[in-house]
């Protein structure tokens, strides 16, 4: 029995989580002996509306006491002008990641064969792509001090700090080295060592660890070059390791190589309870219309089955079911192509649930 805390959140969050729940139920029907206990909790802007805080204490306790957390997305224009501690991103998402101590965020950019022509990049650039971004998730500028003051001239000065310690770099780099070892043996560490002291430490620490991994080929790349290389020749990469903010930006960019940000799942690991979420946000522009792509969240369920529950067969069957539905020509609007059949969020999840029975 596995207890999953569901945090639908805001915008398209509840729609994509409903799709993922549908698939979890189908997994349960397929695998005798596998039982999921699902409990839902308020989180983000909607929680702030209901309870006055974006991360209610009961929600946090529920997350900490379950086996895994599945999160939709938070945020939206409605909450953008709240004081910073009440904003869903800073007041709920970042503290949740910190409390769960999930310092390693895995964001796999894998293109399904059926979508090789759905990307805005040419087929030959993206076909066969399989890049794993390992993003440090609980440190860096996201968690530095913030300060704002009004200057005598009436202007405003802000200060925010960026800290990393050796220990924080070592633990996330180890995750990336270990993954590279199980994959194609290539690790690219991305930094801005030509400017930032934190990046110079990052590079020193990662270089030193390479001695423990003679079977992994390590190279370092500056983040601006990496952004360019990701669209020039993304297949040069196997595992990309980087700090929090660079990883945020590069993973959105990498997602588009697969056809849409609506395709990219994530697993945040390192603590006792894993956190699983699509990499996209609450997409206020399409919320409530049954058009969002639920696949990123469904693939996050597959990552949960693999990493938190050690059910690799079930994880593979979810991924195969997604692949099958795409091969049959079903598409949500974001990956729609001529001659394909457009479906909504709900129908896409239902189709994946049905195909699971034969995958
Ligand atoms: P976004 O990822 O929400 O949307 C960017 C674009 O991608 C939009 O055009 C959107 O319609 C599209 N898109 C996103 N997910 C999609 C899906 N599943 N299917 C189809 N199209 C999809 O980013 P944004 O617009 O910059 O941010 C909106 C809000 O979400 C902000 O408040 C932001 O802070 C928040 N956000 C939250 C998370 C999270 O909760 N993990 C992540 C990113 C952004
Ligand atoms: C993500 C999001 C978050 C981040 C925001 C909403 C705080 O963009 O999960 O990628 O930057 O980590
Ligand atoms: Mn992001």
From TrEMBL:
The protein's annotated catalytic reaction(s) are: (2R,3S)-3-isopropylmalate + NAD(+) = 4-methyl-2-oxopentanoate + CO2 + NADH
Cofactor(s), by name: Mn(2+); Mg(2+)
The EC number on file is: 1.1.1.85
GO molecular function terms here? 3-isopropylmalate dehydrogenase activity; magnesium ion binding; NAD binding
Any one GO CC term of this protein is: cytosol
Keyword Metal-binding part of the UniProt annotation: yes
- Which residues take part in binding substrate? 97, 107, 135, 224
* Key words of the record: Amino-acid biosynthesis, Branched-chain amino acid biosynthesis, Cytoplasm, Leucine biosynthesis, Magnesium, Manganese, Metal-binding, NAD, Oxidoreductase
List the Pfam families hit by this protein, alphabetically.
Iso_dh (PF00180)
Binding sites annotated in the UniProt record for NAD(+): 76-89, 281-293
Pathway membership, UniProt: Amino-acid biosynthesis; L-leucine biosynthesis; L-leucine from 3-methyl-2-oxobutanoate: step 3/4
How does this protein assemble? Homodimer.
Q: Which family does the record claim for this protein?
A: Belongs to the isocitrate and isopropylmalate dehydrogenases family. LeuB type 1 subfamily.
Q: What is this protein's name?
A: 3-isopropylmalate dehydrogenase
Gene that produces this protein: leuB
């Amino acid at each position: 029995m596995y207890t999953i805390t569901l945090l639908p959140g805001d915008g398209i969050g509840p729609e994509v989580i409903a799709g993922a729940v549908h698939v979890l139920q189908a997994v349960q029907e397929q695998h005798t002996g596998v039982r999921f206990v699902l409990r839902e909790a308020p989180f983000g802007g909607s929680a702030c509306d209901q309870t006055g805080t974006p991360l209610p204490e009961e929600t946090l306790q529920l997350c900490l006491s379950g086996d895994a957390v599945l999160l939709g997305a938070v945020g939206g224009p409605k909450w953008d002008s709240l004081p910073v501690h009440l904003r869903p991103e800073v007041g709920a998402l970042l503290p949740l990641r910190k409390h769960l101590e999930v310092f390693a965020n895995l964001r796999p950019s894998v293109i399904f064969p059926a979508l090789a022509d759905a990307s805005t990049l040419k087929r030959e650039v993206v076909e066969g792509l399989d890049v794993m971004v390992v993003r440090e998730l609980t440190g860096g500028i996201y968690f530095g001090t913030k300060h704002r003051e009004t200057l005598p001239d009436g202007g405003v000065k802000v200060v925010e700090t960026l800290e990393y310690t050796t220990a924080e770099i070592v633990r996330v780099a180890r995750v990336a080295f270990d993954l590279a070892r199980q994959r194609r043996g290539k690790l690219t560490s991305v930094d801005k060592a030509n400017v930032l002291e934190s990046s110079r430490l990052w590079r020193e620490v990662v270089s030193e660890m390479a001695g423990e991994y003679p079977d992994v080929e390590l190279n370092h790349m500056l983040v601006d070059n990496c952004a360019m290389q990701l669209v020039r020749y993304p297949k040069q990469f196997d595992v990309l390791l980087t700090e929090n903010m660079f990883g945020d930006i590069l993973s959105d960019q990498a997602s588009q190589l697969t056809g849409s940000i609506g395709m990219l799942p994530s697993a945040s690991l390192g603590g006792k309870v894993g956190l699983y979420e699509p990499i996209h946000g609450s997409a206020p522009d399409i919320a409530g219309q049954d058009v969002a792509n639920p696949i990123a969240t469904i693939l996050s369920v597959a990552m949960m089955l693999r990493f938190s529950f050690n059910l690799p067969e079930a994880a593979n069957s979810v991924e195969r079911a997604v692949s099958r539905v795409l091969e049959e020509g079903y598409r949500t609007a974001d990956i729609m192509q001529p001659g394909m059949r457009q479906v909504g969020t709900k129908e896409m999840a239902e189709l994946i649930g049905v195909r699971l029975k034969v995958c």
